[in-house]
User: What shape does this take?
Amino acid sequence: MKAITAYQEVKRKITNDLVSGRFFMGEALPSEKDLAKELKVSIGTLRKAVDELVAEGIVIRRQGKGTYVAEHDEQRLLYYFFHVVKHNAEHKNYPKVELVSFQSASANQEEATKLAIKEGSPVWRIVNRLFLDQTCVLVDHITLSKKHFPKLTKAAFAQREGSIYQLYQAQYGQTVVRTSERLRAGAASKQHAEWLDLKVGAPVIIIRRLALGIQDEPIEWRISTLNTEHHEYFSELGI
Assistant: This one.
C-alpha cells in the first residue's frame, strides 16, 4: 500500500474541513502561516497541498487577498461546465433555462450505477430546456439522489437564484468540482425533435455527464441532447 505523503495528508485534512462545513463557499481560508502552524507542517508542504486543491477547482487564489473556497457563479459555470456556443463563436453566453418537468422516481440500473446508489432508490428526475438567443439548443435530463437532496421541491428548483450548481452548493452543501463527460452522435427522438425544432432523426450530440464532489462522490447524472444545426460543443480549459 502506497504511503501517504505529508502534503497529501494536509490536503485530506483541508478537504475534510470543507466537507464538514468548517469553511463555507466564498470564504477565505486562514493565512498560509496560520494554517501551516495549525497543521504542524512547513509552508512548502502546505502550499503543495493547496496547489492541488487549486488545480482541482476546489479553492481559488486571489492575488493579494488569499485563498478562498471556490464558489459557483455565472463565470465559473460558463468556464467549467457549459460548453455550447454558436458555430465558430469566440465567446460563450449564459443560457436561459426553462423547467419542463420535475418528478419523483425510482432509480433505474444506469442511474443507480452512476450515482452509487441501489437500484430502486428514490431519485428526482428533472428535465430542462436551455435557450441561446431565444432558440432551444439543449435538453437536459437530470437525475439526483434524494439522499443528497431530500427536501428539494419543484418550486425551489424553478425559483432558484443563480445556476443549478449554485443551488446544490448553497442549499444542500453539495459542491460540484469537476465533471466526467462522454459525447456520442445520436438521432433526435420525436420528443427531442419537437423541443429542439428539428426533424425526427436529425443528427444531435448526446452528452453524458457525471458531476462529482470534493471527495469524488457522484452528485448528479445528466444526459443532454444538443442541436448541432447552428451550435456546437466547445471546451477550452487552461492548465
The radius of gyration is 20 Å. The beta strands are 59-62, 66-69, 84-86, 96-106, 122-132, 135-145, 178-187, 203-212, 218-227, 231-233.
